User: What shape does this take?
Amino acid sequence: MKKAIIIAIALAALVAAPAAFAQTSGGTGTAAPAATSSTPPDIGAPQASQIGDDTAQQNLKEVSVDKFEASGFWTAYMAGDEGFVSARLFEGAPAGKKGIPDERQIGMSLQTADQYVLGVKVEFFRRGYNEFYVMASKPIPIEGISKTVSVWVAGRNFNHRLVLLLSDFFGHQFELPMGTLNFQGWKNLTVAIPPQNPDGVSGIIQNSFHFGNHMGLKILGFRIDCDPMESFGTYYIYFDDMRAMTDLFAEDNRDKDDMADNW
Assistant: This one.
């Protein structure tokens, strides 16, 4: 009789053990012991301090960089032995473009400040690894710390490649590929601005802790790298509404009584 009781108790323990284990690991039963303060949080996860993305101190805002409305502000050129290029404004706009809700009025009314697009026409002399440039008459500054830059482009479904040209806080020039122009109609191309390297003195640098009253990038223009198999005849490309997603936290929280180092 005693042996039968012992066997029954052992069997009951074996049946109950998996159920107890499942409740503990599944989170529906007894909670696991809480982590102590010495346990590092989010082990293996990227840290904001290392990737320049401290969301606790950011004020992201989409701003207009240029709408390609000023005649003569943008100039197109290429090597004289590769072809002939010209640029001018045309009335029009991408149908999918949406306005910035709280955009500020600068210079002219918002109703009349977005009527044109920039058209560029290239007539190639020969096939080859040709390239041409669409450059601003002077660098276009962007306030704050830029995260992305976008522009509407009609690339006419060619395998040419668009490259953004910019300069950083210290005037060092960089180029960022924006994509291939192998699509029909208008498309909004966007490129991310990589954060500066952890050493703080290399990469694309947008600010310096010595100078808090001005920061950011300057847009120089674009380069179009032509596919040698399609760089013949006449090529057309159109640009409109360049914007940036930028962090304006430092701009909006600057001391009003601070001096401006612009003399």
In short: The chain has one domain: 57-252.
